[in-house]
Amino acid sequence: MSPLLCVVLKLRYIAPFILLILFINLYRALDHSSGHVLSDGRTLAVDFDDITATVEQYRQSAIQPPYKNQFWEVGQRCRKLVEWLKYIDQLPGRSKAKRKLVSAAESTATSLFPFIKSSPRKPNSRTALSDLRSVYKKGSQGLVIPVGGGDHAVRFAGHLIVSLREVLGCSLPIQIVYAGDADLNKKQRDALASFDSTKNMEFLDVFTMFDDSTLSLQQGHWAIKPFAALASPFEQVILVDADAVFLQRPEALLKHRAYYNTGAYLFHDRLLWRHEFRERHDWWKDQIKEPSPAMNKSRVWTEDYAEECDSGVVVLDKSRPQVFVGLLHTAWQNTLDVREEVSYKITYGDKETWWLGLELAGSSYEFEPHYGSILGWEKEKPGGGGTGSDRVCSFVIAHPDDRERLIWFNGGLVKNKLADPESYEVQTAWMMDGTWVRGAMKQNMSCMVGAEVRKLSGEEQEILRRSIEAARKVDSTLKERGLNIFGHV
């Protein structure tokens, strides 16, 4: 056999082997860093060594108390989690790349948010984050109303339910969320169920979803709210305080341009206490190192006012990973240790945790264009000599929609729930973009001056009149059932 023929024969057998080795190495390289086609046709290019190193770094430097200076870092880890979830949602099937990303996301999420671990639903699950997201019913929308802590809360929730159903004709499903039987017992739940004429209401004990060992929600008052939003199976949530009152169907909020564009719509508090609460502002400046466009629109951020958010209504689309993870950050701020050390000490209750969670997690969100308005009654300027009204006074904060029509207000239908919880009166006027003049105490009226006094339309006054009429019937029913509805508020 000629030497040339020997070479040819050797190449005939060696070449396939070389090609096989090259193919294996190429496959490993693609599986290691890139080459995975997403559902939108793009190719996923991820360095899994980097992901592994990131997860290990998070494991070795877990978030520990004190928490005050760690809100930014929790937000940075949330942003990484959002990145991974977006890829997970687009990778098909059960590819190796998807499994690696799921593992990274689960490890990071359960480290940051231990309350999702050991869920009573699946106490031994290794996929707590995926389990929580799987609860959400695709395309579903609904109202989530946390209720608990006493018969007075049941009363206000009853007022809200009958107004929504019987006056406004709201057809959205309602979910009442509570923290165990001690928070809202069966007698109270049965009373609330009787007020929904559509029978499209259900109850959710948040303890069936989350481990309460780091939460203490029965004692947390406002703290249950983000956990109620997280636990609800509604993918799009309108979270509503029990003492909120609507002048339009809440469904309208789901059609707002701002909500459609961002997936998170919030409402402003009153503009008050400018250049006060220095510690609060210094802390925000320290933790919000790179303010978003939404933050740079804030007069609290740019002009040093004290309070940003009225969290009586919050609208969220949990199908968007950034909103979902932002909600997780908000929930973390309302866990027992964090709220007692920071959240409820530097600010008041849950209010500021909503935008701060979204902001730090890198989520898009938008506030209503105006800071808190007032709804009440026209009053003359003190000592004005009968020259006419120049102010609107009341006990509530009101909010217009994107067409500057009132959509809801906080504080309930009673005129003054703190000083006289039995009296009702239909409001007749409102004001927007004026200057707040606070009452000396919470029991005293506050006023707004310096802007146009706007009259409520006949239709708006009729909605309030009918809502008050329905609320009186709720009061009678609850008293007949033996509830102490005029107790502590």
Automatic annotation (TrEMBL):
GO molecular function term, any single one: alpha-1,3-mannosyltransferase activity
Gene Ontology CC terms: Golgi apparatus; membrane
Signal peptide region: none
Main subcellular location: membrane
Lipid metabolism in keyword set: no
Protein name: Alpha-1,3-mannosyltransferase MNT3
Annotated membrane topology: Single-pass type II membrane protein
Transmembrane stretches, start-end: 12-30
Pfam families referenced in this protein's UniProt entry, alphabetically: Mannosyl_trans3 (PF11051)
Keywords, in A-Z order: Glycoprotein, Glycosyltransferase, Membrane, Signal-anchor, Transferase, Transmembrane, Transmembrane helix
Biological process according to GO: protein O-linked glycosylation
Domain of life, source organism: Eukaryota
Record-stated family: Belongs to the MNN1/MNT family.
Subcellular compartments: Membrane
Coiled coil residues, start to end: none
InterPro entries per the UniProt record, alphabetical: Alpha_mannosyltransferase (IPR022751), Nucleotide-diphossugar_trans (IPR029044)
